[in-house]
Amino acid sequence: MIRQSLSKSELKEFQTLLHQRSKLLKGDFDGLEGETSGNGTDRAGDHSSVPGHMAELASDDSEKAFSYGRMESQTEELKEIKDALERILDGSFGSCENCQGRIPRERLKAISYARLCVKCQGKEESR
Fold it and tell me: What residues contact residue 71 under an 8 Å CB cut-off, 6+ apart?
């Protein structure tokens, strides 16, 4: 296998992708945070903070649980993006953390914060 390092222009491209994804996630996160901190009166059509039916309470709780789950996932992705940006700065971006081989460009384009090559990721997932 030929190991090609990423050029400065490729690193800049990945850095831009990471920053764009981070900005998108932060905007979505802020929206979710607003939804979960509201008392139920912000939704269109609501005129009271008191639900008219127990099913509405359950639905509100379910929606909040879903939003909290998305927020947790986005927090983890934002951490991965931050770590990837640090790897660009320290020169380790694009190298597999397990085998030190190169992570294929195609994989980095799909998941720009990938830490592992496809082979090592497969081993991790099969555990």
Answer: 29, 32, 33, 36
